[in-house]
Amino acid sequence: MLSELEAIRYDRQLIIKEWGIKGQHRLKRSTVTVVGVGGLGSPISMYLAAAGVGRLRLVDPGIYELSNLNRQILGWTRDIGVTKVKAAAQKLNMLNPHVEIETIDERVDENNVIKVIDGSDVVVDALDNWKSRYILNEACVKMGIPLVHGGIHGFGGQATTIVPGSGPCLKCIFPRAPEEPDNIPVAGFTPGVIGCIEAMEAVKLIIGAGKPLVGRLLLFDGLECEFTLIKVERDPNCETCSEL
């Protein structure tokens, strides 16, 4: 049940007909794992915490550096040299003390990924490299956990949602990793746009509202201020999900 303070805090979303008290209860009982607490992970985590996700699991081995601060808005100048998950958890606890914040100060790899996402209702990809994304995608497919993907570059980015067995996985959509520069150029506000979309997709999956981006890739071009939806198909020969 929601406390009196929670009912007041979430009042504006409780009166959304697709959300309501049942949706809020689902959120409160849910666990969302956000892998990456950088440019994408900051707005994702903030909006999920504000919405009232019951448990928010933050996964990132990084330490805040000065060059992060144009886009990683959970990291402030005082946090330089502090682990990202620790600094982020402190602020998210202040934002919404009703949310349980769990931190994992590790890089996701083949050895720990199952442990990291175990018990999640939704996993959100806020990563910056394709090797880790493919590891996360494979584990989510194996465990049947929905995965929300987002990626950014300069003024643009993309987002999609993977529900194992109900549409293409990340490997179907991107069978080969795109080229990755050593330092990905990022306008600070771009991850805000894509991160908000990812947070919305995660909430929609949990409360059962609307149509998630399953089988669709949303492309964002900030320079032209255009959104484009592309239909994406499941690969029957996909090495990750073809046996589902």
Main attributes?
single chain, 244 residues, alpha/beta, eight-stranded mixed sheet, 9 helices, 34% helix
Outline of the structure:
With 244 residues, this protein is of the alpha/beta class. The chain has helices at residues 4-9, 11-14, 20-28, 41-51, 84-95, 113-117, 130-143, 170-173, 190-207, and strands at residues 31-35, 55-59, 100-104, 122-125, 147-153, 156-162, 216-221, 226-231.
Overall, the morphology is globular
Low-confidence stretches: none
* Total number of beta strands: 8
Distance between the termini: 36 Å
- The helix fraction, in percent, is 25-40%
The radius of gyration over CA amounts to 17 Å
- Treating each run of at least 4 consecutive H or I residues as one helix, how many helices? 9
Strand content: 15-25%
Helix-strand sequence: HHHEHEHEHEHEEHHEE
How would you characterize the overall build of this protein?
- With 244 residues, the protein is of the alpha/beta class.
- It is built from nine helices and eight strands.
- It has helices spanning 4-9, 11-14, 20-28, 41-51, 84-95, 113-117, 130-143, 170-173, 190-207; strands spanning 31-35, 55-59, 100-104, 122-125, 147-153, 156-162, 216-221, 226-231.
- An eight-stranded mixed beta sheet has the order 3-2-1-4-5-6-7-8, sandwiched between helices.
- β4 (122-125), α7 (130-143) and β5 (147-153) form a beta-alpha-beta unit.
- α4 runs parallel beside α9.
- The termini are far apart.
- The model has no long low-confidence stretch (mean pLDDT 97).
